[in-house]
């Protein structure tokens, strides 16, 4: 009940801030599940695929297909499923697939930025509205009388709405920056493992070995 009282004391801006907090929780949950899945399996799967590829290309492709929900697996498959491409075509396929995966890796970034930007502004709006309520309730000569209730309520609304806006923005910013660091790390990993796969393919191509997706 205490939390409900604080929420209601935040005034009209408490409702959009509540909506922002619910949306932020939903987005954070989805992104947390996504990155946990990636971090748990991706390194092991990709390293195993890189070991298998020089010996058994079809087995490596099968392994990647079985883990097609991983971004880097989809990137590798775009190149590996080409029939005996030239090294330049192989590299272009890797780069194009990597670019296509960026929206998935950066998903909801704009939503996080919007919440971080608007939540403090809504808190500031609540502060202004609360102060307006307080000053409109203030009457000279009656500061300690019946009008003091409106003044107190207006000040409470101003302070609580400010706190709510800052809390929503700060918590969302922490998670947004964490997911951004995961995204940057993922890009570096894609470049590293993609480069290793390209070198393996180029080496076998120069040796005159042909690798087909149906091998």
UniProtKB/TrEMBL annotation:
Stored Pfam families: MotA_ExbB
Transmembrane segments: 6-28, 115-138, 158-179
Residues covered by the MotA/TolQ/ExbB proton channel domain: 70-191
Protein's cellular compartments: Cell membrane; Membrane
Primary location: membrane
Superkingdom as given in the UniProt entry: Bacteria
UniProt keywords, alphabetically: Cell membrane, Membrane, Protein transport, Transmembrane, Transmembrane helix, Transport
Topological relation to the membrane, as annotated: Multi-pass membrane protein
InterPro entries hit by this protein: ExbB/TolQ_transport, MotA_ExbB_proton_chnl
Assigned protein family: Belongs to the exbB/tolQ family.
Name by which UniProt lists this protein: MotA/TolQ/ExbB proton channel family protein
